[in-house]
Write a structure and sequence with these properties.
Helix content: 55-70%
CATH class: Alpha Beta
Oligomer: single chain
Number of strands: 3
CATH superfamily: Nucleoid-associated protein YbaB-like domain
Order of helices and strands: HEEEH
Largest sheet: 3 strands, antiparallel
Strand order of the largest sheet: 1-2-3
């Protein structure tokens, strides 16, 4: 029984190592979300950090609309980055949903 537990522990450590590597790799990737016909574009990395925000000059004419577009673009980019991470981790876990991973 101890041998089986040792193998299970070894597999868990290997999975943890692979997961850390995948999270680092995905963290380096970026996703981009565009709203308002490209008037606002948000770029987010795999860690959901906002890297760049582009705003077309004509978008500044209506401040309320601009605020809404910025929120929408950033939220969409962060959601897409989260989904990218989930898909990468799902490849490691065989699609099994493990609580606490994401």
């Amino acid at each position: 029984m101890a041998k089986g537990f040792g193998n299970l522990l070894k597999q868990a450590q290997q999975l943890q190592s692979k997961m850390a590597r995948v999270q680092e790799e995905v963290g380096q990737k970026t996703v981009e979300a565009s709203v308002g016909g490209g008037m606002v574009v948000a770029t987010v990395n795999g860690n959901q950090q906002l890297l760049e925000l582009k705003i077309a000059p004509e978008a500044t004419e209506d401040v309320e609309m601009l605020q809404d577009m910025v929120l929408a673009a950033v939220n969409k980019a962060q959601t897409d980055a989260q989904e990218m991470m989930k898909q990468a981790i799902s490849g490691l876990t065989g699609g099994m949903n493990i609580p606490g991973l994401l």
